Amino acid sequence: MTSMKRFQLWLSRTAFGVLMSKAFASRVDPLIFRLSGGRLTSMGPIVIPQLVLTTRGRKSGEQREAQLAYTDLDGVAYVVASNFGGERHPAWSYNLQAEPRAFMQFRDRRIPIIAQHLSDEEKESVWGRLCDNVPNYSAYREQTDRNINVYRLVPNDSEEANP
What we know:
The chain is an alpha+beta fold. The protein has a domain at 48-155: Pnp Oxidase, Chain A. Helix content is 38%, strand content 29%. The protein has five helices and nine strands. The chain has helices at residues 3-13, 15-35, 91-98, 120-133, 136-143; strands at residues 40-41, 44-45, 50-56, 63-69, 71-73, 76-80, 101-106, 109-117, 150-155. The strands form two sheets. A seven-stranded antiparallel sheet has the order 4-3-7-8-9-6-5, sandwiched between helices. Strands 1-2 form a two-stranded antiparallel sheet. A hairpin with a 2-residue loop joins β7 and β8 (109-117). α1 crosses α2 (15-35). The longest helix has 21 residues, at 15-35. It starts with a helix and ends in an 8-residue tail after the last strand.
């Protein structure tokens, strides 16, 4: 693991890092990511694979973007609704539950997807591999009593995505 990745993982576990991620990075990273062709975030060069997930707000109906770490498992993207171990699921997770059709953007490719919420059994079967990519998931899981949602993002070539 590179020193930059270790630093970013350490920072994301601190109170300051969580505050900065929620208040600042979550708002500017999708723009930086898009403008840099998926090479940069507010922390600098990408060290953990990331995507921009575009969902439809379950209340507003507006498009919502979230910059997320993802794990590629056998050619399929998985995202974890860890919310830094917070007591609530992140908004994008609620949006996917209401409308699983969305978009994910890798670098300059915008792909329509259908998000599949993993059952507890399915989640346990991939959890170790998810933590190999983002070790903080283990700590986040210990910090909260809620059941952290995991989604499989399956390309949706057969119909148009909702957002």
